[in-house]
Fold this protein.
Amino acid sequence: MTTDSAAAAVQATVYGYPRQGQNRELKKAVEGYWKGRVTAEALQDTARDLRRTNWQQLADAGITEVPTGDFSYYDHVLDTTVMVGAVPARHQAAVEAGALDGYFAMARGTQDVAPLEMTKWFDTNYHYLVPELGPDTAFTADSAKQVAELKEALALGHTARPVLVGPVTYLLLAKPAPGVAADFEPLTLLDRLLPVYAQVLEDLRAAGAAWVQLDEPALVQDRTPAELNAAARTYRELGALTERPKLLVASYFDRLGEALPVLAKAPVEGLALDFTDAAGANLRDLAKAGGLPGKRLVAGVVNGRNVWINDYEKSLATLGTLLGLADRVDVAASCSLLHVPLDADVERDIDPQIRRWLAFARQKTAEITTLARGLAQGTDAITAELAANRADLASRATSPITHDPAVRARTEAIMDTDGRRAQPYAERAAAQRAHLGLPLLPTTTIGSFPQTDELRVARADLRAGRIDTAGYEERIKAEIREVLSFQEKTGIDVLVHGEPERNDMVQYFAEQLTGYLATQHGWVQSYGTRYVRPPVLAGDISRPEPMTVRWTAYAQSQTPKPVKGMLTGPVTMLAWSFVRDDQPLGETARQVGLALRDEVNDLEAAGTSVIQVDEPALRETLPLRADGHADYLAWATESFRLTTSGVRPDTQIHTHMCYAEFGDILQAIDELDADVISLEAARSHMQVADELATAGYPREVGPGVWDIHSPRIPSAAEAAALLRKGLEAIPAERLWVNPDCGLKTRGWPETRASLENLVEAARLVRSVL
């Protein structure tokens, strides 16, 4: 298949690796540092040990070029902000007082200073810290982190490639700083930024870097001619530098499209492309562009975002075609392995046969090295691996887990009327006001309350057999009563039961639906020290029995005030799971929507008058290219309406979204036909309220007035100021008062104080209406 010289040239590599450690050591060390239990030196030692462990795992698996610079205490985009010296003025004092504390102040804020805005990293569930830039931004190079981590890896004997967020993507991800005109374009700062990148590249070359990877995932989105010209100029100028390493420009998550010929012609030594899409767009476009003669191609043929095993024969066919399109072809995952759990082999609760269908980060590195060996030495070198792969793929395809005739018959019987409320919103709103009797500016929370140490101990005691189910449930009931009592005393209008029985807003439901697999150790970083265990959506979905009705009904029995039923919507159930890849997403969404519809109807029958179906992932799942938007939004909104359209007009349907660019989906938000929507708005200064008003959104809205992802406690005056800003866009009869998101990650002291201030803010503003 290949010559000996070609075999020697093929490398196996990755763009990044899970940061947290096997037992989430990084999370524990960082949170310990925040609480004063871990010193800065101990935190740095933990980080160093994790980096070394990661590199050694990669090397042991056969990865011949390891990444550096991908490790982060909180977020790699925030690391880039530090690298280019774009620290906001309000954080300068904190950074000067201590680099580590200043770094975390930008990420989390302090009592006196707000953090950077946080939003989703393209269409993933990873959150990054948004750079704040303006006409006066002055960039300065600080390559200390990147150089130090490269030297660490080289000293350990690894061939290493630093990975940086590229300058074009960095500017395209940025927003105008507070006080800067909203129409300011950060990309106009490119001429100031490029000399800083040039300095960083020079520093890395001096430290021993042969190659540096510059990630430009923003170029897989629809880009204007001006933006493509900026990309061309960027790599023309960086490529012309004399004191630099070789440059590998990487894209992922979608096809590079019109940006591909721009980068192919640039004076850089290599490109990294994602070849995992079913349509083979990058492969087709690369051939059309004439390939990459004289250049290195890093072929992302192993899916870095999902957990299903690779199809070796399909990937080898792709790689074989690519051999004729580039001077050198190396094998990689399609993107950083940050987006998958660390190791499937530790999941002992999953049937061993089913576990063979799964590939987490460690298994994906083995797949990459197997494919590299097959590409270099021919398929005879991997005969056993190919045979095992065929058997595992066949096992999954024919398993009864993946196909349930009853579920498929139900989805095929869906009628148009199943996805529409019987009454228009105006009639429903009148019925709901009469039924609920709420004041102007009603107050509520998003759902979850702090998950206390006592709750965690109770779960551990139940698993260990130290208490029985009855004892555990008594603890849950006591927690519900405490949460309700606090809300009643504080004066909140629509209560929640606090969700003490739930481990995670997706996992909790996945564990009660057929077709899902739950993991015990499958942690994935969502943001900072927040890790989740996305379940694996392996087969057809149904709901054997009610999932939330018992606890919601118990809570309602304890108070005369309305208690919201709380569910996670079908799009988010897909987006925050590792979803099956053997059928269209829309089909899977319909199955989940019908299962949740049964739950909504049972909640209503049990006396629940307000039901919230959360869809925070609606925007993040939006395809990166505009030509995929209409189809996605059609099935996404349909699945939500399937969930919620079977209730009476006086039952109020809420939904919730957070940390996304809502302006891109305003029409879809309207198409959901929810009666009330609550949205993140505190960090973005009520931007979403203005966007909804401009779009003519006709329903009730709760833009958040408390940023719950920061430990700071907003005063009543601060919350009232945000609320007044919201009233400039949304009339009082349609405005709710609530936090940005659920309170699971907050502590009780800050929760009490912040909610008391939130209610007081509503009273202050309500008193003058």
Summary: Residues 1-8 have pLDDT under 50 and may be disordered. Residues 308 and 358 are 5 Å apart (CA to CA). Residues 40-61 form the longest helix (22 residues). The chain is about 45% helix and 15% strand.
